[in-house]
Amino acid sequence: MDLGQYFYPFELQLLDKMELTGRVKVIKDEQSFASGFTKREFVITTEEQYPNDIAFELLKEKGDLITKYSQGDRIKVSFDIRGREWQGKYFNSLVAWKIDNADAVAPQQTPPAAYQQPQYQQAAPAPQNFAAPVDDDLPF
Fold first, then answer.
1. Which pTM does this prediction carry?
2. pLDDT single digits (tens) 74-129
3. Which domains, ranges and CATH numbers included, belong to the chain?
4. Whole-angstrom Cα distance, residue 26 to residue 53?
5. Nearest-10 Cα torsion for 51, 89, 87, 37
6. Nearest to 63 by CA among 92, 106, 96, 86
């Protein structure tokens, strides 16, 4: 029996919408490797009851996404989770692919008009002369 037809693969569940909002805590310098690969790391502090410091990576040309922000800026990070094995140990990384200013003002929308209670009229009184029930063969 192939259970794959009944369950989504793990990757699809994770890719639904991975976003996190917080304040920039640390922006590290870009790292270049001999292979030509580059990455840049940054850390944000979440705005929960118990804040967490979360580290992200920006790979290759995405490293410039963080340059317009500085420490203390409130940002929203869209990211993917990546995992790998190395010498019997397993590692995860959060790879950012989009960064937005979380304090950006949303487009102004016209507020809805104040709700007004509809005016109802008094219903006419029910007639007092009801006809006697009709005897029919219906079961209801």
1. 0.62
2. 999 999 999 999 999 999 999 999 999 998 755 555 555 555 666 767 766 766 66
3. 29-101 (2.40.50.140)
4. 10
5. -30
6. 96
DSSP conformational letter for 64: G
Look up tokens 């029910």; give the residue: 126
**The two structure tokens encoding residue 8:** 């989504």
Report the candidate in 79, 113, 81, 116 with the shortest Cα–Cα distance to residue 99.
79
Q: What is the chain's length?
A: 140
What is the dihedral sign for C-alpha 136, 138, 139, 140? negative
Parallel/antiparallel/unpaired status of strands 19-27 and 74-86? antiparallel
Question: What are the residues facing 79 on neighbouring strands?
Answer: 96
Q: Which of 33, 37, 82 is nearest to 55 (CA)?
A: 82
Q: What is the 3-state secondary structure (H, E, C) of 70-85?
A: CCCCEEEEEEEEEEEE
Owner of token pair 């995860």? 92
Short-list 63, 69, 72, CA closest to 45: 72
Instruction: For residue 77, count CB atoms less than 10 angstroms from its CB and return exposed for 0-12, middle for 13-18, buried for 19 or more.
Output: buried
